[in-house]
Amino acid sequence: MPSPFRIACFGDSLTEGYGLAHDEALPAVLERSLRDRGVDARCLNFGVSGDTAEDGLRRLDRVIEADPDGVILAFGANDCFLDEPAEDVESRLALLIEAFRKRNIPVLLVGVNAGLNPDEAYRTDFEAVFPALAERYGLPLFPDILAPYQGDPSLTLLDGLHPNAAGAAAIGRALLPMAEELAVSAKA
Questions:
Q1: How far is 176 from 63, CA to CA, in rounded Å?
Q2: Which CATH number fits domain 5-187: 2.30.130.30, 3.30.465.10, 3.30.420.40, 3.40.50.1110?
């Protein structure tokens, strides 16, 4: 019997499931949804609250050692919060992408909006990073991990920033078609 398609969900608190039970976090939601659609997948949670793309580089070896068949790469929210220069974020994400490509591990890139950053020029530069990387590397891009829940208090924790269980489920529903494509196309 073939083994399940292993997806490393690699990112920050939005991936980890900050404030949520393990089975409410995005990777668990995606795994259940993929299986409901007949895709034999296992979603590995490599999310760490507070992490930036630079932190992701430090954790890269652990993700590679898990031998994933695909990666959902979702960094950027903390980089934006910390005003990391957009060009630095882009170069760090590029290094992550290249490390996976070198091992023939397909990547689904997940973007994030910079709407909470008060600097309009920064927002423009930061939000351009994800489409530029997707185009450069020919990657599928889920444009904004925040969009499925941001601005709806019924989908956030009390901090108004992180998704609650219903918010994580909303992200999962929105991301599901692209996650399914990642699994199906990589197995083909």
A1: 21
A2: 3.40.50.1110
